[in-house]
Every structure is written in structure tokens, then in C-alpha cells.
Amino acid sequence: MATATTAAAPMIARSLTAEAAPASARQASPREPFNMTLRINDREHRVALDVRTTLLDTLREHLGLTGAKKGCDHGQCGACTVLIDGQRMLSCLTLAASVQGRSVATIEGLVQADGALHPMQQAFIDHDAFQCGYCTPGQIMSAVGCVREGHATNEASIREYMSGNLCRCGAYANIVAAVTQARSAT
């Protein structure tokens, strides 16, 4: 019986020490709001969020930017694609806290100040590169990234580098035509 009492003593001591520690020394719960500043579409947004909140949920639920869609929420469809520092990223797999100090661009940020559409948006309209429209914001953001990354050199390359964005309606031929048209203007 002496072994059990001796073994429990360090655990009790640690427990009492933790209770006696000042509140400022205790680690905050991840559920407690964390203050952060996010730069989205060239605007600063101050938010207080659970550190486990995804960028997609932050955009849609906390900032009212609903262009990025929640398709699969597993990084498999591309409907939530945004540009982070110019690179394509899936916002459903990105924690909002991880983009502090970085530039995030969403479909809402592509429109010019005078209301003119981005060349990729116009190309999607010109080539009827959407049907239901659900995947379109993610397709356009991915297409902008594809061009900026230098992967839109030919149709085969466009198909390869856009393959992470799914379209249930099957508008792929029109999407490739739109990217081909806009690649020189983007």
C-alpha cells in the first residue's frame, strides 16, 4: 500500500501547483477567442476567433465573404480556392491564424475598383465556362493562380494544373478555353 501512496504524491503535488498558479500563467483554452488581423482583398480585418477556425469559415461566417464555397470541406473539390500571397490554397484546409501577415485574395477581390471584371472573370463569361456556378469562384481563383504560376502554357498543362478543381456540371472544355483566352491578359 505504501507504493500507491508514494506514486500518487507527485500527481497531487502537480495538481495543487497548477491550481495555485496565477491565471496569467495558465495556458488559454483553444476555444477562447484569439485576436488576429487578417489582410483580405487589400483590407485589414480584425477578428477574434477560436484558433482552430479555418480560413473558409472565417471568410464565410465571420466576414460575410461568401464567394469561396464549402463543397467537400476536405480539400478534394477546390470550391474554396483562394490566393494566399499569390499562391492557390484551399481555404477549408488552412487555419485563419496561419495567414496573419499574409495577403489573401478571394473572388470578391478580383473586381477592379471601377467595377470592371478581372480578365479571367470576363473570359469565364465569354466562354460560358460555368453552368450551376457553384464551383466557379474556386475555378476562377485557381485559374488566376495557374496563369501566375506559369502553368497555362498549353491546353494539356491547363488541364493538369486545374485538375484539383472539380465541376459536377462538366464545363471543363469551356474552362480551358477561358483560361487560354485570359492567360495573356492576367
List the helices and strands and how they pair.
Elements: H1 2-20, E1 34-40, E2 43-49, H2 55-62, E3 81-84, E4 87-90, E5 103-105, H3 119-126, H4 136-148, H5 155-161, H6 172-182
Parallel strand pairs: 1-5
Antiparallel strand pairs: 1-2, 3-4, 3-5
Quick rundown:
The chain is an alpha+beta fold. It is built from six helices and five strands; from the N terminus they run αββαβββαααα.
Describe this structure in words.
This protein has 186 residues and is of the alpha+beta class. It has 6 helices and 5 strands, in the order H-E-E-H-E-E-E-H-H-H-H. The protein has a 5-stranded mixed β-sheet, sandwiched between helices. A hairpin with a 2-residue loop joins strand 1 and strand 2. Helix 3 (119-126) packs across helix 6. It starts with a helix and ends with a helix.
Can you tag this structure with a few keywords?
186 residues; alpha+beta; five-stranded mixed β-sheet; 6 helices; 13% strand; globular
Class of secondary structure makeup: alpha+beta
Helices and strands, in order, run as HEEHEEEHHHH
Quick one: biggest sheet?
5 strands, mixed
> Between the first and last Cα atoms, what is the distance in angstroms?
77 Å
- Helical amount: 25-40%
Number of helices: 6
- Summed over residues and divided by their number, the pLDDT gives a mean of 89
Topology, number of strands: 5
Enumerate the spans where pLDDT stays under 50 for 5 or more consecutive residues. Answer: 9-18
Strand proportion, as a percent range, falls in 5-15%
Any idea what the shape is? globular
Strand order, biggest sheet?
A: 2-1-5-3-4
| Rg value | 23 Å
